[in-house]
Amino acid sequence: MSEARPLWHGTLRLALVSCPVRLLSAHHERNNLHFHMINPDTGNRIRMVTVDAGTGEEVERRDTVRGYEFQKNDYVLMTDEDFESARIDSSRTLTIAKFVPRDSIDSLHFDAGYYLVPDGKEGQDVYAVLREALDQSGTAALSRLVLFRRERAVAIFPHGEGMLLHTLHEEGDINPAADAFDEIETIRTEPEMVKLARQLIDRQRDRYDAADTEDRYEARLRDLIDAKLRGEGLQPEREEARSDNVIDLMAALKQSLGSQDDAAASSRKPRKAAAGKAAAKPAKKPAAAAKTATSAKGRGKAPAAPKRKRA
């Protein structure tokens, strides 16, 4: 059983069957770079102080409560007990409302991802049956739960031996695509250009590799920090020349394909050169064969020289 602290625990319910479940974070904070605010004149850290806006006196964060501003500078104070008393059914129960095709959920709606796992031995058969049914049907289960004092719509997916839960953005949280795309001109594309673009896609088609998500900027920052600790600098990487004005799209696409051909050819040249050197060594053997042929003239037809193997 995972020792990770659950973010939520309750009951997963489908009609009259249910099982206890808990929610675990699917992500963790790795050893990222952390920077502090420093006074450059003294080299000392800056301390952020929580102060009373009216009196200017320092207040310990543990002594504060939350407040809702209903009018300017007037607040309704909310305690932990107030939040607890406002609980609704989704605070402790994941009731599945409906099932939808997995690909029908726009990726824009996905927010955070979590592992949804059984909470103990009880009800694991219900959990397994539901996971298998979701997998075979190609559907996701939609439900709601209160997480971090906010009710969220969620989607539940099968994932290996377990299930994933994704919180979903509300429609009102998402900016309309039409607002972002309204200035894009409607252009009739030429089939030949699309064909060339697809050739580029086919040549660079590959499988997704999680290593592709590595933060290269952080790696450069680490190199810079190490260099500064040694009293050195770090040479900036040379940026590729950028041309924003593509005059001939067809020519640019063809040039891109040509550049890929040149790159592929250059990557193969060392192999051919090595193969050529290997083939050059036995070049002296035919001379030895010629001596044999000369000595055999009086006895009959000379044997043919051995064929050279192709490099």
Automatic annotation (TrEMBL):
Keywords: DNA damage, DNA recombination, DNA repair, DNA-binding. Gene3D superfamilies: 2.40.290.10. Residues 56-186 form the Ku domain. InterPro entries: DNA_bd_Ku70/Ku80 (IPR006164), Prok_Ku (IPR009187), SPOC-like_C_dom_sf (IPR016194). SMART domains: Ku78 (SM00559). It holds the Pfam family Ku. Residues 275-305 have a biased composition (Low complexity). Residues 257-311 are annotated as: Disordered. With LigD forms a non-homologous end joining (NHEJ) DNA repair enzyme, which repairs dsDNA breaks with reduced fidelity. Binds linear dsDNA with 5'- and 3'- overhangs but not closed circular dsDNA nor ssDNA. Recruits and stimulates the ligase activity of LigD. Belongs to the prokaryotic Ku family. Homodimer. Interacts with LigD. This is Non-homologous end joining protein Ku. It comes from Teichococcus vastitatis. The lineage of its organism: Bacteria, Pseudomonadati, Pseudomonadota, Alphaproteobacteria, Acetobacterales.
